[in-house]
Amino acid sequence: MSFFIAGTGSALPEKVVSNDDLAQFLDTSDEWIYTRTGIRRRHVLTHERLNDLAIASAQTALADAGVAGAEVDLILCATLRGDTVTPSLACIVGEAIGSTAPAFDVNAACVGVLYCMEIADAFIVAGKAKTVLIVSAEAMSKLVDWTDRATCVLFGDGAGAMVLRAGSGRLAGELSTAPDSHVIRMPNIEGINSPYNQTQPEKLAIYMDGGEVYKFAVNAMGHNIEQVCARAGLTPAQIDWYLPHQANVRIIDASLRKYKIEKSKVLLNIAECGNMSATSVMVLLDEYAKKGTFHKGDKLLFVAFGGGLTSGAVIIEWKKD
Ligand code: ACO
């Protein structure tokens, strides 16, 4: 007994920013960004709060699953940083849906949703929960330096959610880290006002070594696909749908090349949404679920990598018609 996915939801900011829009104030071009990453556009927060997007996506997922907020036994939220450090984004969602269930945020960077799925599995297997709400929301536009063309062009904002119910949908999961504090790094602004602070405050913005991230990502995604398929007793060819973290089309292609996976099985929305960190796979899942892409019995493989360095993969069987 583990879980199956009973419902999904997502919410994106209204404002869409194209590569050409970025070229108005950055030394970049649609040609550079698209050929290097596969990104054309991204959604960016303007008047909306991240909380509102997270709540909207959770409400849609609950309605899709036919589950009331009060029925939820656990709320997990994958985010790098919510609108407030406390209350957590998970508690804010809990308040909005009328739940008093335990609720907490999980920061595993872009792999956060997969970490949440594995935590949900542990709670359900231990008999501590029957219904789990996972939400992911990321305000990447507030975490990048908009003068750094090497990072700000890559990211977008959004939120997504899934409702998990006790059942037999999860086939296998695999999480790992390769701890490294240099390759991807986002400092907190700390001790800014403390009379005792003797450390140099750092600016809150993502720094990364793009080439090193690229190498790590290709190896980690390939390794995690092999491990999770072995755990599930499947070959990569037996997977119906791949839902990879949407960081870069070239990373996705390079990770999957050796398994000769048909391109039509690899789901993408990076062109329209950019990299939404943990939220990418969630929005991808909801988009293709709502299009009717998945059928009962289909095997879906989620795979992701991110800051930490974290990585992981989860295989689930789709249970809805
Ligand atoms: N527009 C134009 N030129 C640019 C831009 C830009 N937006 N950004 C960088 N360049 C320049 C560089 O300055 C460099 O110029 P130089 O040769 O004069 O020094 C040149 O383009 C080539 O840069 P490279 O780094 O070699 O370009 P590359 O082909 O490796 O692509 C990229 C860079 C897209 C960052 C790639 O390495 C990548 O995708 N890495 C993985 C990044 C990633 O996945 N991040 C997400 C993980 S973190 C997370 O998800 C939270």
Strand order of the largest sheet: 1-7-6-4-5
Assign the CATH superfamily of the largest domain.
Answer: Thiolase/Chalcone synthase
SSE order in H/E notation? EEHHEHEHEHEHEEEEHEHHHEE
Shape: globular
Hetero groups: acetyl coenzyme *A
CATH topology of the largest domain: Peroxisomal Thiolase, Chain A, domain 1
* Name of the level-1 CATH class of the largest domain: Alpha Beta
DSSP summary, beta strand count:
13
Can you tell me the residue ranges where pLDDT is under 50 for at least 5 consecutive residues?
none
Radius of gyration: 19 Å
Mean pLDDT comes to 96
Tell me the major beta sheet: 5 strands, mixed
Note the total helix count.
10
Count of the domains: 2
What class, by secondary structure content? alpha/beta
What fraction strand? 15-25%
Distance between the termini: 20 Å
Helix content: 25-40%
CATH architecture of the largest domain: 3-Layer(aba) Sandwich
